[in-house]
Amino acid sequence: MNKKLYIKTYGCQMNVYDSGKMADALAVQGYEMTEQVADADMVVINTCHIREKAAEKLYSDLGRIKPFKLARRAQGQDMIITVAGCVAQAEGAEVFERAPFVDIVVGSQAYHRLPAMVGEAESMHRAGRKVRRRLLDTDFPSESKFDDLPAAQTGSISAFLAVQEGCDKFCSFCVVPYTRGAEFSRPADQILAEARNLVAKGAREITLLGQNVNAWHGIAPTAASHAASSSEWGLGRLIQELAEIAGLARLRYTTSHPRDMADDLIAAHAQVPQLMPYLHLPVQSGSDAILKAMNRKHTADDYRRLVDRIRAAAPNLALSSDFIVGFPGESDADFADTLRLIRDVTYAQAFSFAYSVRPGTPAGEMGTQLSRQVKEDRLAELQALLRDQQTAFNQSKIGQVMPVLFVEAGRKPGQLLGKSPWLQSVHLIGDSRLIGHILDVRITDGHLNSLSGEFVMTNDDEDDWGDDHAACCAGH
Questions:
Q1: What is the model's pTM?
Q2: Strands 136-137 and 104-106, how do they pair?
C-alpha cells in the first residue's frame, strides 16, 4: 500500500511549483497525494513569508495538525510533519522549539535533500526514537536543487516551470533575498528538457516562474544545432525556443521587474504567437520618493515609458501589477501619485497590500511607520479604483470571440473552466472531453473576476471533432 502525502501550500506560484516538485520527489519513495490530513503518513506545510504574521499562521496550522499525529500514534502509526519554504528558511531551529512534534524543517533551497531526510525520519520512527533537530536543512547549498529533482510524475494542462530563483534587487520591504538567496538562472538545456517532459505529459500551457523571471540569463544549449549561438541567452530567446516545442500552445512568465525588460523580451511579445498578451509587471508605487525608499531603482515615469514601449510592440497586451500602500513615510501626495499612475496605465488585474513590517528588512527599521487606519483607508480607495479597471477590462470583452484553453471542470455540474489569452477565467457549459483543448468562445458577460461565454462552432471545429464535438456543444 502506498503511503499518503498531504501538502498545504501558501504564497506564490513558485511555492506551488516547489510543492509539486516535493510531491514528485516523494512519489519515488512510495508517497501518493491525499486531500485528508487524517489519512496522511506525511504532512508538508510549504510556507510563505510575504504576508504579515506568516510565522504565527504556521504555528496555528501546526497546532491543528498535532492531534492527527497523536491519534495516529495511538493507533501504532506515524505521521511525519515537515515545515518547508520561506518561513522554514527564516525560522530554522526555532520551529522545533515552538513545535517539538515537527520532524523536518527544510528551507527553500534544499528540497532535493528532502527524500533523504524523510528516509532518515522513517528509520528513526521505526526504531522508536524521537526525531528532532537533526533533520534541519536551511543551507544554501553549492549544488542546484534543480539538478537532482525528478521530472514531473503527473501531468497538468496548465503547468509551471521554474527558470530563475532568488533576487539581487534588495527592495527594502522584501524578504526574498534572505529566504531564497541570490539570483540563479537554470541552464537553457535543463529548462527545455523539463518543458518537453511537461508537454509529453499533457501540458498545453507553460508559465515560466522566477522571483525576477525576466532577469533570467541562462547558459545556452551546447548541441550542434546551436553551435552558432552565443554562450548565454536572455528570456526572449528562451521563449522563442520554447515556442518551437510541438504541442505547446501557450507561454506566460511571472514575476517581472521593470529593470529587466530587455529589448528581445519586448520584441517576443510581438513576434511569438504562443506568448500570451498578458504581463505582470509590478511597480509597487507611483511616487518617486517612495520608489526610492523602496530601493526599486526606477521612477514612475521610467515605468510609464516602459509600458508605452511594450504596448507599442504588442497593442493588445494587458497589464497587471503589485501595489503597496502605506509604506513608511508615504504622504497624501505620494499616495495621490500612485492613484495617478494607475489611471494613466490602466490594469486588467492587480494585487494590492497595506504595508506590514517584515523583520530584518530595512523598511522595518524606518521610523515613519503609518497608522493602521491610514493604511486601511488608502488600500480601500486604491482597490476600488483597481476593481473598476478590472471590471471594465472584463466587460470590454463582451461580444468578442476568443480562443479559450479548457483546463478543468467548474464548480457547477456540467461547467467547464477555461483560460483566456489574458488569463481571465472563462466559465461555460460543456463536456469534460473538451478539457485540454483550445476552442473559440464568444464572451456573453464580464464579471469582476471572470467571464461567461458560449461555444462558437466553425467548419474547422466540425472537421476536427466530428459528431462528438457537435454533441458536446449542442445548444450552447
A1: 0.84
A2: parallel
